[in-house]
Structures are given as structure tokens and as C-alpha cells.
Specification:
It comes from Salix viminalis (Common osier). The protein is 19% helix and 10% strand. The protein is of the alpha+beta class.
């Protein structure tokens, strides 16, 4: 029994250690000269330069796999601290490959700017998801779907309130409102549990 409690405690501790802190303030510019923890820079010392990154316009050096990566994360761009986002520029030589990898604390989106790039992944059950299989990644186990139109105009909100909120005339609201779907009667205000 004691062993089970210790294992459970260890599993909970691992989840706490390997997760990003939630953003509880407007911004937190990282102090990059800290060796163990990345604290916030004093807000009186923050400048516009803390929120700018230079370097995505240039290609990094290619590795043996024919891949060149410019990483933009809290270590290279301190203004990203607590923002829940990072990015990378990856260039590939002809025949270059991405080294198999995982992102234990993030989802990944690949955006090809030029050329052709075959992409996919292998899940933990060794199933291959290759070109054409994957349409999108969401940072949630059930991302759902909410359309702006159905959420705003799908409920019985007074036209004068919508007009003030959206800066539209009552006539414009009536035109759009005539095409609405009444989803609020289902109690979901236009939100769908479907990941599509």
C-alpha cells in the first residue's frame, strides 16, 4: 500500500514538474542570466526590445541530416515567458530529414512556406500517420469547434445590444440575424463538442 502511494505521488509530481506555469500576469520578461529558474524581469526595466526577436529571416547552419533550425523560445526571446507559445524556423536541404523528435510540453504545427515537405508522425502504438492523413493539431484532447457567426447570432440577443457591441446599425444586424441558426435552445450557445 505504501508503495502504491509513493508511485501515485511520484506520478503527480512528474506532471507538476514538466508543465508550464499558467500566465497569471500580463507579461513576464524572462531573466536569461539565471541558472536554475527563469524569474520575471522587474517591470520598470522592461523595454520594447524585450518583445522583439531578430533572426527568423536567416537560415541557421545545416546539420548532418540536412536540417537547419532557428529556435524562438524563452531562452532566445525573453518576452515569450508565460505566453504559452514558441516557434522555430526549419530549413531543409534537398533530401534533408527532420530528426525524429517529440515536444513533451507542446503541440506542433508545420507551415511550409516554399517547396514540398512530407510530414507525419508515429503514435505510441506504432501507427503511422503520413501525408494527407493529418489535417490539424489542437492543444487539447477535445478542441471542439465554435464559429463566430453561430455564437454571436445563434442566440436570442437583442439587436440593439449586438449593434452596440459590434458597431453595426440595427438594419445590418437584422440582415445578418435573418440567417442565424438557433443553437442556444440546445444550451450550448453555438459550441460543438465535435473536433471538426
Amino acid at each position: 500500500m505504501v508503495l502504491m502511494v509513493r508511485i501515485l505521488f511520484a506520478c503527480l509530481f512528474i506532471g507538476l514538474v514538466f508543465s508550464d506555469p499558467p500566465p497569471v500576469q500580463d507579461y513576464c520578461v524572462a531573466v536569461t542570466d539565471s541558472e536554475t529558474y527563469i524569474p520575471c524581469k522587474n517591470s520598470s526595466l522592461v523595454t520594447i526590445e524585450d518583445f522583439m526577436f531578430y533572426g527568423l529571416n536567416a537560415t541557421a547552419e545545416f546539420n548532418d541530416a540536412g536540417q537547419a533550425i532557428v529556435s524562438v523560445n524563452v531562452n532566445t526571446f525573453p518576452g515569450l515567458r508565460t505566453q504559452g507559445v514558441s516557434l522555430a524556423r526549419a530549413d531543409y536541404a534537398v533530401g534533408g530529414v527532420a530528426v525524429p523528435h517529440v515536444h513533451p510540453r507542446a503541440a506542433e504545427l508545420v507551415w511550409v512556406l516554399e517547396g514540398t515537405f512530407l510530414s507525419g508522425f508515429i503514435d505510441s502504438e506504432e501507427r503511422v500517420f503520413s501525408k494527407g492523413t493529418i489535417l490539424g493539431f489542437y492543444d487539447s484532447e477535445n478542441a471542439g469547434r465554435s464559429t463566430f457567426r453561430d455564437t454571436i447570432f445563434g442566440c436570442e440577443v437583442k439587436e440593439e445590444v449586438l449593434g452596440k457591441d459590434l458597431g453595426l446599425s440595427a438594419e445590418d444586424i437584422s440582415k445578418v440575424g435573418g440567417r442565424k441558426l438557433n443553437l442556444c435552445g440546445k444550451g450550448e450557445a453555438g459550441f460543438s463538442a465535435s473536433p471538426n
